[in-house]
Amino acid sequence: AACGRRPLRSDDPNGNADAYRPYQLYGAINVIDHTLYSNYHSWQNLVSRQAGRFSFTGAYTFSKALGIRGTQQGRAIQPPDLSQIRQYSYGVLGNDRRHLFSLAYSWLLPEVKTGVTNAILGNWQISGISQFVSGAPLQVVGGDGNFRLDGTTANGATINNQTITGSPDILVMPVLTCDPRASGDMVADANCFGAPSPGQNGNFIWPTVVGSSYVNHDLSLFKNFPFGSGGKKFQFRASAYNVFNHPQRAVDDSQNLNITFANGVQTNANLGVLPTDNKYGRRIVQLAFKFYF
Questions:
Q1: The model's pTM
Q2: Is 216 exposed, middle or buried (0-12, 13-18, 19+ CB in 10 A)?
C-alpha cells in the first residue's frame, strides 16, 4: 500500500503532488502490511445413484466469497489510510460464483429380443454432463474497479483520480443513485450511475453486478456390438460437446463496462448491455470406433 501522500487541495487538483507530501522528494512510500483476508461460505449438496442400469451424480453449491480485493481477486481500491482498507476494498471477490450445478448421468438401455432386432435396438448407452454456473462479479473481474469511468463533470472538469479525489492513488468512482443490478439482456442499469464531483467521490463497494451465466450440455451415445466369447466387442461412440450448439454470450469490457460522462450526462448507450454479437462456444462432434478384447 502506498503511504506518505496527502490529498491535493480542492482548489489545486492539478498541482504538484509532491508539494503536499509529508516527506517531499521521496515520492510514494510503499509499506508492506498484513491487511488482506478472505472468507468463503457455502451450502453444498450431493445426490448420487451408482447401481443398476441408470446412474447419476448431481451436485449443487450455493456460495459466497468475500474478502479484501487484490491481484486476481479484483482491483484493490487504495484508501487514504490503511486503517480504511475494509471500507474501500472489502467485498465480493473475483472467484465468487453464487450458484453452481452439475449433473452427470449414464443410462444403459435394456436389451431387446435376440437376432436382428437386438443388433439394431439393443446394447445402447447414453451418458452426459450438464452444467450451470452463475455469472462473475463484473465490477471486480471486468470493470477495472469503476467500469472505466471517464469523461467530464457537470462543470466540465475532467473525471480522473486527481481531479475528483485529490490524489492520483485513489481511484475515482461513480455515484450510485439506485441498485445497478439488472437481468435479461442487461447486466447493469446504466441509469444508476451518476458523475462524481471534485471532493465528492462515488461508491467503492457496489451491489453484486454479475455477468451472463454459463450453461452447457455434453451428450454421448454408445452402441456395443458383442461377438464371440471372453467379452470381446466393437463399440461405436458419438459424442457431442455443447450438444445444443448454444453459444455463451459475454460482455465486451471496452464497450459494455465503460461509464462515460459528457458534462455530467452518461453518454455510452452500450453501458450494461449484454450484446448479441459477442459470443463464444460451438458444438463439437467426435466419432470413434473401439475394439475391446
A1: 0.79
A2: middle
